[in-house]
Request: fold
Amino acid sequence: MSQIEDKLATLGITLPDAQDAPKAAGNYAPFVQSGNLVYVSGQISRHPDDSPMVGKLGATFSVEDGAAAARTCAIQLLMQAKIACGGDLDRLQKVVKLTGFVNSTPDFTDQPKVINGCSDLLVEILGDVGRHARSAVSAPSLPLGVAVEIEGIFEIS
Amino acid sequence: MSQIEDKLATLGITLPDAQDAPKAAGNYAPFVQSGNLVYVSGQISRHPDDSPMVGKLGATFSVEDGAAAARTCAIQLLMQAKIACGGDLDRLQKVVKLTGFVNSTPDFTDQPKVINGCSDLLVEILGDVGRHARSAVSAPSLPLGVAVEIEGIFEIS
Amino acid sequence: MSQIEDKLATLGITLPDAQDAPKAAGNYAPFVQSGNLVYVSGQISRHPDDSPMVGKLGATFSVEDGAAAARTCAIQLLMQAKIACGGDLDRLQKVVKLTGFVNSTPDFTDQPKVINGCSDLLVEILGDVGRHARSAVSAPSLPLGVAVEIEGIFEIS
Reply:
C-alpha cells in the first residue's frame, strides 16, 4: 500500500478497486493521459453507496453539505488518479488544476467554501503535492441533479 | 483525403475548408498549440448554414435536440483540429479532453445525454483515438443563446 | 522592467508586487506550473482597492461594465504570470487558453463581448503572444457575487 493510501486509511477512507470505480456516463473515458498529465473527467458528488448526492446550494444544501459533497469528488478523483498510476499513488507528482462546479441558486456566493471540501482533503492527504490551481463557479444544474462536479488535471511520473 | 475524412464522408459529413471556418467572436484564436497539444476554443452549436443553433434544454429543446446540437460542435472541433494538423487529420493522436456546456433551465439533469451527441460522433469517427475525458455541466445561458458550447484539447503529432 | 511592463505602463497599469497579490480563497495555489505550462487559478473581477467587483450581466451590469470587469481579470492573470516567471514577464511565450465565466441572468447572450475586455487587453499588451484559445460561458452566480471570473493557461520559457 502506498504512503498516500496509508494516510487515507488514517482518515477512514479506502479507495475502491478499479473494477468498482463509477463508469463513465457516456462514450468517453474516466481519464485520458497525454505526456505526464492525466485529465480526469468530471466527478459528481456521490453517497458511499455510489448513488448521486443530489442537492442545490442556496436551497436544499448548506455550505457544509456542499463541502461534504465536494469531498466525495476528491476521493473519486484520487481513485481515478490511482488507476492512471497503475495502482501506485506514490507516482502522483502534482495535483495541477481543479475546476469545481457548484449546483446553486443565482444568489449563492460561497462557491470557494464548497470546493474547499475537495481542496482541503487533497492537501491533507498529499501535502504540497496536493496544492493545486483552481476555479470554483456555479452551474444552474448538474448531471442527475448532483450538488457538485469537479474535474482535475494530475501530473504523474 | 485522410482515412478520418473517409469515415466522415460515409456519414455524409464534409469538413469545410479552412477559409470557411467560423471566425472567432473576438480578439482570440480558434485554437492555440502548445507542445503537441492543441487547445480549441469553445465551439457553439450551429445550423448547416453556420447560423447559431439557439435553444434551451428543459424549455425549447429536447434531449434529442440537444444531442444534435452537440454533434454540430463535434464537427466544428474536428474542423479546427484539421486546420491545426495542417489539413491532415491522420496526424490526430488523441482527443484528450472535452468540456461541454449545456444551456438549460435549473431543473435539467440530462447534461451527459446531450454532450453524448459530441462524444458519440468522435468515437464513431476516430475509434479509441476519440475516447476522451469529459465534463458536462449546465450554463444558464450561452453566447447568442445557443444550446451547446464545447471546447476541446487534442494531441497531434 | 520588462518590455511588457513598459507597455502596461503606457496604459497606466502597474502590476502589484508579488506580496500584494490577492491570496487564494482556500487551500490551493494562485498558480501551478507543470512543464512549461502555468495554470493560473480563476481570477475574479476586482476594484482597484482589491475589493470584489460585484455585478450581474443582464441585471445590474451593462456589457461595458462587464468588459471592464473582465479587464481587471486580465491584469490579475498577468500579475500571476509575472510571479510564475520569477518577475520577468519577457519569459512569457504564449497565452494558451482562457476560460471566462460571466455572472448573468438566463437571457443574457453577449458573453463574448464581456470576455473581450480580457482578451483585448492581453492582445494589446502582448501582441500575437497574447492571442489565445478561449471559451466564454455564463454562470448563474460566482464567488462573492463578482461579475466575471477568468482562468488561464500560459506557456513560459
